[in-house]
Amino acid sequence: MTFNEGMQIDTSTTSSGGGGRGIAIGGGVAGLVIMVVALLLGADPGDVLSQQPVDRGQYTAPGFDLSKCRTGEDANRYVQCRVVATANSVDAVWSELLPGYSRPQVQLFSGQTTTACGSATSAVGPFYCPGDQTAYFDTDFFQVLVDQFGSSSGPLAQEYVVAHEFGHHVQNLRGVLGRAQHGAQGATGAGVRTELQADCYAGVWAHYAAVTKQKSTGVPFLKPLTDDDIRDALSAASSVGDDRIQEAATGRVNPESWTHGASAQRQHWFTVGYQTGDPNQCDTFAAADLG
């Protein structure tokens, strides 16, 4: 998906840099792999994470120069600017759909960063912290998604990841994000339902992305989606399915340890959101069949 060159990027809610110590679990693929392997081996994922190598000293990563992010042309050129511009677009869509919507913060980091949810390294991947209402992105993750998980490298594959993390912010605002930690777990548990709902919310954003105009310029954020764009998003959704990751990591699939949902389920719920554009259709918690 391509940004219109006339749109202006708003970096007011975005910061860039890094620094901190330790590891925090987020919503990323690498952290998911660690958890999947730990559960398959009968270990406590927290114990496994605590054993990961960490620089215990204070570490400050160089930040991306956000002054480079000015227009849609910059979003099409720089992946960091694409994250910020996508965040602008997602904010605009949810501001129209959800009364009382407030924008989350966005943190671009490299190496390590400190959050209200604890410290995190790039190994965690993109994640959302409800404690500071911030979505965190190390953009190197997008290449990992391609090289290690077989995702498409297209723009909408990356934008889907941003919209998914913002989906968790929407859940937080609606008071449902905490449900991920309660009740049954596994293939039909609350954790999987939470992640699939965020996928559906990402699809809702995609439904409106090319028709939602930036108020300051009157220009749509993005150009109309193509079939290739949708294939890119579905490729990313499939690449981070629990079944696909488990198969690659261990050679077998164990639904009882799923945390994010199967590849087909993640594609299904993105498609539900994209085709309907209706957040009410994303009630994965009430769904008898998750697809």
UniProtKB/TrEMBL annotation:
Name of the protein in question: Neutral zinc metallopeptidase
Region (Disordered): 1-20
Entry keywords, A to Z: Membrane, Transmembrane, Transmembrane helix
Organism: Mycolicibacter senuensis
InterPro entries: Uncharacterised_pept_Zn_put
Keyword Membrane: yes
Gene Ontology cellular-component annotations: membrane
Subcellular location: Membrane
Topological relation to the membrane, as annotated: Single-pass membrane protein
Biased composition (Polar residues): 1-15
Keyword check for Chaperone: no
SUPFAM superfamilies referenced in this protein's UniProt entry, alphabetically: Metalloproteases ('zincins'), catalytic domain
